[in-house]
Amino acid sequence: MKISITVNGVVKALEIADENTPLLWVIRDTLNLKGTKFGCGKAACGACTLHVDGEAVRSCSYPVKFAEGKEVTTIEGLGDRENPHPVQQAWIDEIVPQCGYCQPGFMMATAALLNKVPTPTDEDIDKNIINVCRCGTYYRMRKAIHKAAELQADKVMNESKTL
């Protein structure tokens, strides 16, 4: 099956053997973007979270056929070293990761949350960020999510001033 998806702003025309292949494996194995992690394979842990048309999706259980013609953003497309996304910067500032394996999924879930709820409360975070971290860095993540909201608000304000 031929499929066309936009990944991190670049259109990718792919030949996929099985349209039900999880998007995770297309991202990791076909496109060689290794930031999105495999955790449970059951959409329970969130390590594989990425964005499809701006929505947080558990890619281990999301058939690639549903990504046809859509915009997919992975952790590699969120920001970079020179221009990190506010969530990535907050994760650095708050020294969130311990082992770090689950963190790309948490950052992608957080970025999606902040697009919907720019200044989340602790309750908003509890309801929306339901990924699993075996190291237990939840306290630092909560601090980072609040900091990311501040950084994103500052970024939006600064961009509006330059217009």
Description of the structure:
By secondary structure, this protein is of the alpha+beta class. It has two domains: 2-78, Beta-grasp domain (Ubiquitin-like (UB roll)), CATH 3.10.20; 86-161, DNA polymerase, domain 1 (Orthogonal Bundle), CATH 1.10.150.120. Helices cover 40% and strands 14% of the residues. The protein has helices at residues 23-30, 75-78, 86-93, 103-116, 122-128, 138-161, and strands at residues 2-7, 10-15, 49-52, 55-58, 71-73. It has a five-stranded mixed beta sheet with strand order 2-1-5-3-4. Strand 1 and strand 2 form a beta hairpin. It starts with a strand and ends with a helix. The model has no long low-confidence stretch (mean pLDDT 96).
The gist of it:
The protein is α+β, with helices and mostly antiparallel strands. It has helices spanning 23-30, 75-78, 86-93, 103-116, 122-128, 138-161; strands at 2-7, 10-15, 49-52, 55-58, 71-73.
Overall residue-averaged pLDDT value: 96
CATH architecture level-2 label of the largest domain? Roll
Helical coverage, percent range: 25-40%
| CATH fold description of the largest domain | Ubiquitin-like (UB roll)
Which descriptors apply to this entry?
163 residues, alpha+beta, Ubiquitin-like (UB roll), DNA polymerase, domain 1, 2 domains, 5-stranded mixed sheet, 6 helices
